[in-house]
Amino acid sequence: MFYDMNRLLYLLPVLLCGISPLKADDWPQWLGKDRDATWREEGVVRRLPEGGPAVVWRAPVSTGYSGPAVSGGKVYLMDLIIDEGKIINDAGAQAKLAGRERVLCLDASTGKMLWSHEERRDYEVSYPGGPRATPTVVEDQVFTLGTMGHLACLTTDGKVQWQKNLAEEYGAPLPMWGHSSPPLVHGEMIICMVGGEGSLIVAFDRMTGKEIWRALSARHGGYCPLQIVDHGGTQQLIAWHPAGVTGHDPETGKVYWNVPIKPTNGSAIAMPRKLGNRLFVSGYNRIGGMIELSNERPAAKILWRSGPKEGVYPVNSTPYLLDGIIYGVDVDRSALMAVEMESGKRLWESRAPCLSKEIAARSRVPRYGTAFLVYHPGNKQFWILGEMGDLIVAELSPQGYREVSRARVLEPTNTSGSRKVLWSHPAFAMRSVFLRNDKELIRIDLAE
User: Fold this and answer.
1) What is the DSSP string of 364-401?
2) CB of 424 closer than 8 Å to CB of 435
3) What is the pLDDT of residue 15?
4) Res 4: pLDDT
5) For the chain, which ranges sit under pLDDT 50?
6) Residue 331, Cβ neighbours under 10 Å: how many?
7) Nearest Cα to 212, choosing from 203, 220, 200, 199?
8) Please, which residues have CB within 8 angstroms of residue 237's CB and are 6 or more apart in sequence?
9) Is the pTM of this model over 0.90?
10) φ, ψ at 168 (rounded to 5°)
11) How is residue 310 annotated by DSSP?
12) Three-state SS for 179?
C-alpha cells in the first residue's frame, strides 16, 4: 500500500497536467539539439484533436523572426521593441528603425517572464522586423546574435558574460537582411558567421569571447546556419556562404574542401542537408544541387546541379532528407516538393502546407510561400508549420503528400507582398510546440 500511494502521488501531477511521465526533451537551438529538425520525444499525438490542440499559455512578446529555444524548463527568445520608425518590408530597400533589442527568458511551464536583457539598437536593413537568429543554449550559457551583428553570451539567469560588436571588431559588412545565422557551439568554442576580410567564419572561446581561429573572406557572412557533421571518420564544419560551400576542420578552421556553388547576391539561407554521403544545397534563382562527400578523406565534388525542370529550391525553410528523398519548399512554386536525391527528379508537389487555401487555389501564386518541416521518426510523421499559422501533421512519401490533420494555432502578423505570413521557426520540446508571431509566444500541448 505504501508503494502504491507513493506511485499515485508521483503520477497525480502528471495526470492533472495531461502530460505523460516520459522524459521530456529540450530544443536548445535552431532545429533542435542536433540541428537536424528531428523531434524524438515519445508520447506525442499522431493526430490533432477536433477543435484544435490546447494552448497551455500565452505570453506577450514584440516583433522578431527569431524562433524560440527551450532548455532546462526555460524558453529563450529575441525580439525588438520599436521606439522610432516603422516596419516596411521591401526586399530591394533598407528601412531604418530604432528600438530595444531584447533577449527574453520565460518559464516553460507557465509562460511567466523570468528575466529580460535589452540593448538600444539602430536598425538599417531590409525586412527590419526584429532579430533573426534563434538563441543557442548550452549548459548555463545563452548565445545570441542580433540583427546588426551584436554577439552576446549571457548566463541562464540573465547576466552578461561577454559581448562583441562584429562590425566594429571585424569590419564585418552588414548583410542586406541583417545577421541571421545562429551561433554554433562546438566543445568549448562558439562558432559564428561574421564576414569581412579573412573573418568570414570566426570561432571564439565560449567562456571568455577570445578569438580562437578565423577563416576565409567574403563580402558578408550570408544568412545560413553552420553545422558540424561526422563523415568518413572526420568531423567537418559545413558552411554555405557568398563564396560557396566549404568544409572545415572545426578545431582550426582549416579548409578541407570548397565546392563553387555560389548563391545569388550572397543570399545563402537554407542550411545544406546531409544524408549518407550526400549533401544538398539550394537557393534563389535555381541555384543548387547535390554534393558527394568522399568516404576516404575530407573532400567533396558536385554530383548534379539543379535545373528549371528538376530539383527543388528551398530558401526560407531548410529541407529534410529521408530515405533517398528531398522534401523541401520550392521558393518559386511556393509548394512542398519531393525530389529523388540521386537524380533530382521531381516526384510530386503540393501547395497545401505553404499557402492559404484561397491563395493556393489560384492559377498563379506568389513566390516565397513558406512551411517549416520537422520529422518525428517514432510516429513516422512530419510536423509542419505553414506561413498562414496552421500546424499540420502529415505523412510524406515518394508517392505523395497525405495530410493527417491541421489546426489554425497562431495568426500571421508579418507581411510578404500583400499577404500575411508567419516566418518564425517553431520549437518542439516537453511534448509541446512553442510558437511565436510579433505579438505573442505560445505553448501548445501535444502530449498523447
Assistant:
1) S--S---EEEEEETTTTEEEEEETTSEEEEEEEETTEE
2) yes
3) 46
4) 40
5) 1-20
6) 24
7) 203
8) 186, 191, 201, 226, 227, 228, 247, 248, 249, 250, 253
9) yes
10) -75, -45
11) B
12) coil
